[in-house]
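ok so i was messing around last nite and threw this chain in just to see what happens. nothing serious, just curious
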Amino acid sequence: MPVQVESNYLGDWLKFEADNLYSRDEATVVSGQNLTTGTVVGIITASGKVTQVAPAAVDGSQNAVAVVVFPVDASAADKPGVIIARHAICSDKGLVWPGGITGPQKTTAIAQLKAVGILVREGA
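result:
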């Protein structure tokens, strides 16, 4: 029998957000990205576009500043998306991190999210 893998849902990681969409912002996802809900992102300083957080980068995307709300496939071209940018609580279990991220890098990214008002809770 084939194994089926179910994708992440918004409720898997977003546990609280402020009323009236206060926590959300619109953003442009840079071309070449295919981001799922719960993906932790940074903003490329030169363009203002979001991309999956890249701890080793030096273009601004090394700083975790938001989390993708709905999946965005920007594989071929820049696409609009929605991010949680402030005043929210997330579960660490549902967040999507880049492959190869180390424990200390993840700890730094979680602290960066906290600095913008996104709290990451264990097992929430």
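not much to say yet. The two ends are 32 Å apart (CA to CA).
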